[in-house]
Amino acid sequence: MLFYEKLEVSVAKLNKANLKKTLYYLQRNGLRETWISVRERLTETDRYFFVPCSEAELVRQSDRKWEKPITFSIVVPLYRTPEAYLNRMITSVMQQSYPHWELILADATEDHSVEEVLKQQGFLKEQPTDGETEPVAADPRLHYVHLKENAGIAANTNQALPYAKGEYIGLLDHDDVLTPDALYEMADAIIKAYDRGVKVAFAYSDEDKCDGEETRYYEPNYKEEFNYDLILSNNYICHFLVMESKLLKSLQFRPEFDGAQDYDLILRCVAEVLTEGGQTAEKRILHIPKVLYHWRCHEASTAANPNSKKYAYDAGMRALQDHADRRHIPGTATETRHVGFYRLKYKEVWEARSDVAAVGGRVLSGKNGKIIGGRMTADGTVFYEGLPKGFCGYLHRAELSQDAEALDLRCIRIRPECREVFEKIVGVPYTELGETALKLGLICSLTVLALFLSYSMLNVCDLSTDGCFTFGAAVGAVVAVSGHPFLSIAAAMAAGVTSGFVTAILQTKLGVDSLLAGIIVNTALYSVNIAVMGGSSLINMNRTTTVFTMMKDALAGTPLKGREDILIAAIAVILVIVFLVFFLKTRLGLAIRATGNNSDMVKSSSINPVFTTVIGLCVANAFTALSGCLLSQSQKSVDINIGQGMVTIALASLLIGGTLLGHGGIFVRAVGMVLGSFIFRLVYTIALRFNMPAFMLKLVSSVIVVLAISGPYLKKQWPQIRRRMTHTKGGR
After folding, report:
1. Is 261 helix (H, G, I), strand (E, B) or coil?
2. CA 654/CA 705 separation, integer angstroms
3. What is the CATH classification number for the domain harbouring 90?
4. How many helices (H) and strands (E) does the chain have?
5. What are the residues facing 295 on neighbouring strands?
6. 274: left (phi over 0), alpha (psi -120 to 50) or beta
7. What pTM was computed for the model?
């Protein structure tokens, strides 16, 4: 039954309006992005049924006695309004359970056709005046004004504002509908705010859409409480909006922003409110969490057809830029892939926005990334977990950079003066840039030490590193999730030993070239890792007890609180270095080193190079798997691409470390590997903090490896190269 319900909802979305939106989206974003968006929309199966206010409740509202009632002026600009829509709009106001309102109709139609319709429907009547007749309202709360010309929606609305006598002015489009309890809910909320000592600047409600005949209601817009960053991205406030009469009349609409005149007005009003400052500034912007407005969608409406008002979206971007300029915010307004949604790009967020205490983002997996962490609900569910990075979400808001629902503490920057507050709220110390680099550098240095053993000592370039890293992470995660955090480390290292053994056997017993053997094992491990992860590409460990969470509990109340990641990583690195120092000085360790120097000589010395190679690669891969296991437990998630590019990163770190401390004993050289890993991660982290695109970092890693490897050769060849350059220049 569930399948058929989903199918029914999906089929219902295949209508003319959505097809037009899809074509417009295709023109803007291309085939791939369109396919992702269409697939997302068709798989959304949430049904929506608008439930109107009951008759009993409406009677109760009508009977309420108001000591100091709020008066509303509803302003509606008319222009060639279809008869049916005009009638329904007016009756929706006249059927309000709240009585203290007036309706002002500003008609910009060139002829008197709308006026005649109003007469036929009984809203207007002829009244003799000085020998002539003029139209007057049948209901004293209704005011009709016939404008001299159609000057655009902004100018037309402005002409109606002087007629408004209410304390608050409400804005209503000529083809839309108010729910019968709309003004009651507004008045009730505003009065309650007054009782709290807050004078409301403007109030807004939730809304939905309806078809032309009001037979179907859909796409409810359940709005947030006032969110400054969200309003800088999209006019989420929109309808139903009432604003202080004095404030609206002083601001007025600006004709140069026609199409986005509401957005421009709201941004300027927000600027006025926020400029006042104080603790109650944002409280003056009130949200009523109830659908009080039906936005009618028909052929010409923006809601149904984005192409109908393309200029509106351009006007919206200009309004946003104007807001930023007026508030002296150094930022550039840009469009997103969704029409009507914008982004302010800041040069430096701390300088641009003194009101911002923290910025952050999502944790993504792999090159096609899925969300693998972030903020949780009360029951531990992670927002948007497992969804692709291109997921746009409810009303496209999940895609916005300001969106906080998928924010992960691992991707957060805190303003220095706010870090103490952050730690009190979250319960975790803020990790500085250097600390982040130190933690990642220590964990990944285990992989560098593994390559130090295999590449520097054994002279084998093991290209199975990426797959082995993921193998250790996957095995460790599965065991940890089953409730065995310490056993997960042993299991991960055992997995690494297995990977190293297979790689070594391919090289030594089957005659496969070492590079090709690594590639073969790395390829095979992809399937193995998927199988270990239960056929999934992602394992979430947010609610899993790990060695890090256990250490966190142990360090609670000590000066080392919040440093459990660094402490555990440091312990692991120290143990591995101590092991290497002693192991490589043993008879077996010396045999491994000798095998790397000259395998033919080793054979003549009665040492079995097959055995030394197997042991060396098994030990090295055990360290690699341990590194993957610790990283996965630290970031509390594993995805199939967690080890992607790790061999390049490790080689770059190894070469940096070799350059710094490449001459000395095993201990000094091993410390150099750790230092190289830290330096690489520090550069990595700094680059990310300065907004270098993440996809460029692997290219940087590759360049570092090339320069480090080719450096000695280029240094040796430089005198000859310089002589050639000099000769060439002289020959000319």
Report:
1. helix
2. 9
3. 3.90.550.10
4. 25, 17
5. 209
6. alpha
7. 0.70
Say if 259 falls within a structural domain.
yes
SS3 per residue for 538-604: EEECCCCCCHHHHHHHHHCCCCCCCCHHHHHHHHHHHHHHHHHHHHCCCHHHHHHHHHHHCHHHHHH
Same domain, 34 and 96: no
- Report the percent of the chain where pLDDT is more than 90: 41
Beta-carbon count within 10 A of 649 CB: 27
Q: What is the Cα–Cα distance from 501 to 471, expressed in whole angstroms? A: 14
Instruction: Indicate if 614 and 691 belong to the same structural domain.
Output: yes
Q: How many angstroms separate the Cα of 637 from the Cα of each of 29, 166, 410, 565, 654?
A: 31, 57, 12, 15, 26
Q: Are residues 301 and 374 in the same domain?
A: no
Q: Which CATH number goes with the domain that contains 692?
A: 1.10.3470
The 10s digit of each residue's pLDDT in 94-117 is 999 999 999 999 999 999 899 889
pLDDT attached to residue 378: 67
Q: For the chain, what is the largest distance between any 2 Cα atoms, rounded to a whole number of angstroms?
A: 128
Q: Name 391's Cβ contacts closer than 8 Å, sequence gap at least 6.
A: 40, 371, 384, 398, 399
Contact assessment for residue 680 and residue 673, using Cβ atoms and an 8 Å cutoff: no
CA 612, CA 453: separation in Å to the nearest integer? Answer: 12
Extract the tokens encoding 403.
Answer: 């969106």
Q: How many domains does the chain have?
A: 4
Residue 228 burial by Cβ neighbours in a 10 Å radius (0-12, 13-18, 19+)? middle
Same domain, residue pair 483 and 618: yes
Same domain? 36 vs 61: no
Question: Which of 200, 626, 648, 194 is CA-nearest to residue 461?
Answer: 648
Contact 302, 313 (CB under 8 A): no
**Chain mean pLDDT for the chain:** 84
Same domain for 210 and 119?
yes
User: Please, which pLDDT band fits residue 554 given cuts at 50, 70 and 90?
Assistant: confident
Confidence of residue 251 (pLDDT cuts 50, 70, 90): very high
Asked whether residue 625 falls in the same domain as residue 540, the answer is: yes
φ and ψ at residue 434, rounded to 5 degrees: -65, -40
Is 517 a domain residue? yes
User: Is-contact 94 122, C-beta < 8 A?
Assistant: no
Q: Please, are residues 187 and 72 in contact by the beta-carbon 8 Å criterion?
A: yes
Least confident of 205-219, 222-236, 240-254, 649-663: 649-663
Structural domain contains residue 730:
no
Eight-class DSSP state of 59? H
Give the orientation angle of helix 547-555 with respect to helix 609-635, to 10 degrees.
Answer: 60
Residue at 48: amino acid letter: Y
C-alpha 686/C-alpha 683 separation (Å) is: 5
Same domain membership, residue 679 and residue 573: yes
If we measure between CA atoms, which residue out of 700, 703, 649 comes closest to residue 450? Answer: 649
Position 43 scores a pLDDT of 62
Please provide the distance, in angstroms rounded to a whole number, between the alpha carbons at the two ends of the chain. 85
Q: Which domain holds residue 31?
A: 2-43
**243: CB partners within 8 A, 6+ apart:** 168, 169, 171, 201, 202, 265, 269
Q: At 283, is the secondary structure helix, strand, or coil? A: helix
| Residue 36 within any structural domain of the chain | yes
d(C-alpha 451, C-alpha 680), whole Å: 15
The closest of 207, 202, 267, 275 to 232, measured between CA atoms, is: 267
